[in-house]
Amino acid sequence: MNNSNEQYIGKQLADNLFNHSGVFVLPALTLLSGEHIRLITQHKILLEPHDVLQLDSATFYQLAVDDCTAAMESIFEELRYTKTKRLPMIELRNEVIPFIQQVSEKNDFYGILAALQSKDDYTYRHNVAVGIISTLLGKWLKLKPDELSMLTTAATLHDIGKIMIPAEILTKPGPLNDEEYALMKKHTTLGYEMIRDTVGTTHMQALVALQHHERMDGSGYPFGVLGHRITDFSKIVAVADIFHAMTSDRFYRTAAPLYEVLRQMDDNVYGKLDPYICSVFINKLMQSMIGNEVLLTDGRIGKIIMILAHDPLRPLVNIGDDFIDLSRHRQLGVVRVIPQ
């Protein structure tokens, strides 16, 4: 029975669910998690296709991301007020990780990105976003399934140390002063200790919390280590972390345009990221822009028709009867991608 119910994880209940004795079990529109499925199975209920709604992708992304964000908020808040600071890994594995994996399976980057755009819960939504983007990037880098699963958890927990940072610093509506910034940077070592001290985690996952702000050229924190001492998982999460942070509205600034963020990542504006991981990420995102219209620096609007492997940020653009290879016309560039 358990297995046949498990196929409905990630589906939404069509109606209020009652057991055979008429006892209320779950409300209509619940997005079913592993925990819900266990509860349903304990009540000896066997779900059937008509018990769930068929969701379109956009609705599923939004519901899954919203639910994961709410679960992360409850995990953060619970930890904030407990002395032990042991992470609730069972809750994380049941309520968050399966949805992140399901959303990542869709490979629809721009549809997913729309659901990840921060509302007024950036601190929590960011963890879910970095989990999803890192998982997609791990797939593009051809990680094995067990590595991918470990990466998803590590990425989702990368900022867990922030529960120890005062809320007024996390939500400050302007730049941090030196003292505040020094305190903020401690979230890396605090997160490392919390993950290390929790049963059911790995040292690699703890290192991601420690190292996701380290940079290849040693300009990062907390220890300023060079690239060869940064784990691959940490390098992947650093790319996902920067990308989501820069493309989201924050307390103190609005989101930067997507193309501009990719260009700045390529130019090392945010400190040195791993060049191979960064190039795979930029290439994949540009490939999925094929068919989109772009505004060029000379004011003309064209359509991306081909991404060039040697220079992905300078694609082949079609304007009327002309085909303009931006890699050969260096005086021209893309200002922004026009949303479809």
UniProtKB/TrEMBL annotation:
InterPro entries: HD/PDEase_dom, HD_GYP_dom. Pfam families: HD_5. SUPFAM superfamilies: HD-domain/PDEase-like (SSF109604). It comes from the Bacteria. Residues 101-297 form the HD-GYP domain. This is HD-GYP domain-containing protein. It comes from Paenibacillus borealis.
